[in-house]
Amino acid sequence: MTTKVVAITGASSGMGKAAVQLFAQRGWIVYGGARRVEKIPTGANIHPVKLDVTVDESNQNFIHVILTEQHRIDVLINNAGYGEGGPVEDVPISNVRKQFETNFFGAAELTKLVLPTMRQQTSGRIVNISSIGGDLYMPLNAYYHASKGALQQWSDALDIEVQQFGIRSVIVQPGGTQSSWGKITMDNIRKNLKPDSAYLQFATMIGDALDSANGAISATSADLAKIFYAAATDVKPKHRYFHSFSDRLVVRIARVYPRMYRAAFMAILKHQGKRSSR
Is 179 among the residues known to form the active site? Predict the structure, then answer.
């Protein structure tokens, strides 16, 4: 039986790092890509490769290394991503482009690079790591939500195109996870605020709300790695994978009952505003 090969981006931290370890433990040959290659796990079956998904040559080299050494790729997990937070009015468009280069265009290019091999194999799986934020939204993260929404629509269209070749493209939608994502997002919100921004007080309120929410997060990166594995290996893959019922529920509410979702979110903001003013 041929040992399967998986390529995982964003492999130096959080869910990507945990996925590298899990796939390797289960006997897969794992290629982990990240800019901070020294932070990618090492061990049996793991091959760390330096990767910047915003650079064409880096993407091409990542896939070239795998195909040269293994001659196949069974699963590509497009996990690299981050949140470019801040008010729509304040975030520089150059940062918006970086957000889409990382969260969307990197995944698109890597997928284009592996599809010819997967077609020749008549099998393959593209696992795109989105977020519940691909369907719902919160202020000061408009560009992040837009990038994840784009990834989802692209993945769904791709799935229909490639299913005829034995390939599937699926989406994983994590919710809140114990990781550095929230801190990085808040750091970016503060970085992108102009010194005289009209949104300074609003950003403080949102930051307080996120801090409060972080205390209730129970999902770990290891938990999500198991969802990645299911998305990569299910014989009959789902279009969407969630960690919890609550994640699935809030996405359904946002999609099917948008006015209810907005009303609930505005009520939370109003409550947080009262707490922040005390």
Answer: no
